[in-house]
Write a structure and sequence with these properties.
With 192 residues, the chain is an all-alpha fold. It is built from 9 helices and no strands. The N and C termini lie far apart (63 Å).
Length: 192
């Protein structure tokens, strides 16, 4: 029937996200997306309009899932425990897979800045939301521990460090090394 999608949209977007994660925004073509999703190119164009639109829809799903996981990881009784759990969650997300697939948002920020302002804006929005989430969680914890920097600054530093850890993972730092770096930051912000 004309106008009715002949594929499972959620499954197609999930598979498209896998393609973007494996290949990156720049290297992914519509042919790659058709192959990866099992949906013909014409159907993808009709449903979404093109690669950028598919990316934005898939990245929106990724963002929602990532922020939900980050929120759950931050749900701990102390600032230190919350941040260590948060960093563990982040490290696990970009070291998952064999080989590890890295961090889609960091890779997209680097690759898409010059060719897709909308993709760049989507990554910026994710990072802004993540910073707001970290700040909100830290500000609700009354564990008697004060940071040498205000909590807004601490939240921004934490989110910035996740990007650095993602880059270090790409040059073969092991998860334990990444956790050690994260713990050093957490200790400098909230002590032992």
């Amino acid at each position: 029937m004309a106008g009715v999608r002949q594929f499972d949209e959620r499954e197609a977007l999930s598979r498209a996200l896998d393609v973007f994660t494996d290949r990156g925004f720049r290297a992914t073509s519509m042919l790659d997306l058709a192959t990866g999703t099992g949906v013909q190119r014409g159907s993808l164009y009709n449903a979404y309009g093109g690669k950028e639109e598919i990316f934005l829809r898939a990245f929106g799903e990724y963002t929602a899932d990532f922020l939900a996981g980050a929120s759950a990881a931050l749900d701990r009784p102390t600032k230190r425990a919350a941040l260590l759990s948060f960093f563990d969650y982040c490290i696990e997300t970009f070291t998952a897979g064999t080989p590890a697939h890295g961090c889609l948002s960091t890779r997209t920020a680097i690759e898409a800045a010059t060719e897709s302002p909308r993709a760049e804006s989507a990554v910026r929005a994710l990072l802004d939301e993540l910073e707001t989430l970290v700040y909100a969680k830290l500000s609700t914890l009354d564990d008697g521990v004060e940071s040498p920097v205000d909590l807004h600054g601490a939240a921004r530093l934490v989110v910035s460090t996740t990007r650095g850890l993602a880059v270090m993972e790409r040059v073969r730092y092991e998860p334990d090394e990444l956790r050690e770096i994260a713990e050093t930051l957490v200790t400098s912000l909230f002590g032992r």
